[in-house]
Write a structure and sequence with these properties.
By secondary structure, the chain is of the alpha/beta class. The chain has helices at 23-34, 45-50, 65-73, 96-114, 123-126, 142-153, 157-179, 200-217; strands at 12-17, 38-39, 116-119, 133-139, 191-194. Residues 1-6, 47-65 and 76-94 have low confidence and may be disordered.
């Protein structure tokens, strides 16, 4: 399926999601439907690991070294963007701000000409107000997210519970630290979907239709 026609700009969709909401399945599906890149790993693993010391001013619950490391290692959990050029600064000099800046620069550069679907990475916040972008939130009741994570990842209930608590906390802390945003605030999003209620392919189809309708009206 081709991207929406009749525009001089490509489709850009950001997806913010709680753990178990199925973003790892829905994100690539939406990108394929809109014929735009799916942006995955944004910075190198080495660069992310170099930025593990919490800065002055970080909230108390964010100052533990383990949580701070997870904030940045969370950026490196998937393969790289196909065809993207991502120059990295000297990892010995890396700071948390450098990691954030690399993430933002890569997303902006890639989506400027090609569009894209971006899952997480604070994109909902730093691309807010951009009329080219549709912002989507995926969520659902905790227990249904646990069950869905078990199916998607092939893990046991206790492990899914553990990951849900940790991942949701890490994602919220990243967005709060760098952008001062409450990731759960519905005002950040054009579309909020309970993706534990709809089948994942149907949720992707809803986002596709919303994207095409939005871009056609602007």
């Amino acid at each position: 399926m081709n991207a929406p026609a009749g525009r001089d700009r490509p489709a850009i969709v950001t997806i913010s999601a709680t753990y178990g909401a199925g973003s790892s399945v829905i994100g690539p599906d939406v990108a394929a439907r809109l014929d735009v890149p799916y942006l995955e790993r944004i910075v190198s693993h080495d660069l992310a690991r170099a930025a593990t010391v919490p800065p002055e001013g970080a909230a108390e619950e964010e100052r533990g070294e383990g949580l701070w490391r997870r904030l940045f290692e969370a950026l490196t959990t998937m393969p790289s963007i196909v065809g993207a050029t991502m120059p990295q600064p000297d990892v010995g000099l890396a700071t948390d701000e450098q990691v954030r800046d690399e993430v933002e620069a890569t997303i902006r550069d890639t989506t400027r000409e090609r569009g894209g679907v971006v899952v997480g990475r604070g994109a909902t916040c730093f691309l807010s107000g951009d009329p080219r972008v549709l912002h989507v939130r995926l969520d659902g009741p905790r227990e249904r997210r646990v069950e869905q994570a078990m199916r998607i990842e092939g893990i046991a209930h206790d492990e899914a519970e553990r990951r849900l608590t940790e991942v949701d906390k890490t994602r919220a802390a990243y967005v709060r630290r760098f952008y001062g945003c409450d990731i759960t605030d519905p005002k950040l999003y054009h579309l909020v979907i309970d993706s534990t209620f709809l089948p994942l392919d149907e949720a992707a189809a809803v986002i596709e239709r919303a994207a095409r309708a939005s871009f056609a009206s602007h």
